[in-house]
Amino acid sequence: MNPTDLTALEIRDEIAKGSLSAREATRAFLARAERLEPQIRAYLSLATETALARAGELDALQARGQSKGRLHGVPLAVKDIISVRGMPCTCGSRILEGYVPPYDATVITRLLNEGAVLLGKTNLDEFAMGSSTENSGYRATRNPWDVSRVPGGSSGGSAAAVAARETPAALGTDTGGSVRQPAALCGVVGLKPTYGRVSRYGLVAFASSLDQVGPIGRSVSDTALLLGLTAGHDPLDSTSALEPVDDYLGRLSEGVRGLRVGVPRDLPTEGLDPDVESAYRESIATLQGLGVEPVDIELPTAPHAVACYYLISTAEASSNLARYDGVRYGFRASGENDLRGMYRRTRHHGFGAEVKRRIILGTYVLSAGYYDAYYLKAQKVRTLISRDFQRAFEHVDAITMPTSPVPAFRLGEKIEDPLQMYLTDIFTITASLVGLPAISVPAGFSREGLPVGVQLLGNHFAEATVLRLAHAFEQATDFARKRPSLD
Amino acid sequence: MPKVTKRDVEKIADLAHLELSEEEKEKFAAQLDEILAYAKRIDSLGTEGVEPTSHALLRDDAFREDEERPSLTRDEVLDLSPGKTNKGDGLIRVPKVIP
User: Fold this and answer.
1) What's the 3-state SS for A264-319?
2) Mean pLDDT across chain B
3) Are B81 and A327 an interchain contact pair (Cβ–Cβ within 8 Å)?
4) Which residue has better confidence, B87 or A341?
5) Distance CA A130, CA A155 (A)
6) A178 an active-site residue?
7) Superfamily of domain A3-262+395-481
8) Which of B39, B57, B64 is closest, CB to CB, to A195?
9) Count of domains forming chain B
10) Which listed residue (A68, A79, A192, A414) is catalytic?
11) Is this prediction's pTM over 0.95?
12) Is the pLDDT of residue A206 over 70?
């Protein structure tokens, strides 16, 4: 048995049965990562020694007849914007070079308490700002299906590591599509939970009214497992929800017959790749074959989502990123004789182009004279978009859309054109603005053999419904079982 | 809508405590102009009497007792600073505050 062929759930079960040790599993993924990293560059740091030592402790515990929990011995990777005590946390930015958090994020505490083994931290667009992972201050991650192409972003390192089987599953974060879009481009499953479903304590903030932590895996079951173990109220995050956590994994096979899935009538087709569109249409037919009823719906304000999102998220980012000033952590520029000069120079050298661009845009839309015209207007439009969705959910159980309008694009193709890059988020951003749970599941391949994903969106806290639909779709198709040829 | 100028970018960068190169200023002015022109499409939606949304879902009951609880130690926190003094005096060194 090669552990790198297994999903997180399968690894957990093999370890529980005693047919695989935590150390064997950990060693296998680390060895594969060592071998493939020169090509893929999914990780920013590997925690080889810590991971092996931890796996050894878990094996010793099991030898005494004990189990640490529901992830006993399962290796995982973590996007490098989530704090893990003792591991570097760069956020993909030079401004946090050398920063090692002295505490664990709540999601990390929960996963460790269940017996997870953390392999390392994965690459991302700087501070999660981007759709290709090219904005990383360290290196560009490659798409395992075609290394001349991007893995998507911003959780591109996590998605590529999962697709290349350098980890069974990973955590990402999603502000405007950063879990779902790279999952689609890498042919894996990515789930953004409802806003507030998962604690953000220890997640470095980008846009606080939108950020969520979400799992990426090679099966819907793995994302259901990880959601169940990370979700739930956290007294350390005042925006975390009190709603009880559902049995996401147990309810996967409840069946989908009779569920009503909304199909938006006027999807923006400008820039929509024909292969993505046909995979999307076929996915609706597949769902229909499973007894799902497609329902025509209207989301008239949805075409305004990208504009609305880039006004709100940059405004919040400009405020959240004010803390990086070279005083308390990370990088400090030298040679300045006064404090203000030191701030300005540190930020000049520490931040990359996209982060600077968003700080400028966000500061602009919040500045005197523009606040009402841009920021306040966008917040009101956000209300209108939410109303569209609430109206739709009076008639349907879920809504389906493509995930990304295009399959993986080439490195360098969009990097000089920020607006074109922003428009790749057109289908993921609505769920973010409204705070809805949404999953991207593999739905086919382009003529060039690149993976295509479709999205299922649910009402607030209806993760169990979208997971169930995604699971039924996955079982009825074989797209998620196809693998990139890297060996 | 007035065009975003290099001077506007300089003003904004100053508010954000961000030094930019001449090249960055030129480039961001043009890109900002293009992005804002695109963003202006939201003006076609009427929002008279519509309440703004600050969070997708916001709890209004996120209160807790104001109780003492453990936190990171001063040394753990100071140790992260690029300006730590290494003298155990609990200080962070920064350049002159008043130039």
Assistant:
1) ECCCCCCCCCHHHHHHHHHHHHHHHHCCCEEEEECCCCHHHHHHHHHHHHHHHHHH
2) 91
3) yes
4) A341
5) 9
6) yes
7) Amidase signature (AS) domain (3.90.1300.10)
8) B57
9) 1
10) A79
11) yes
12) yes
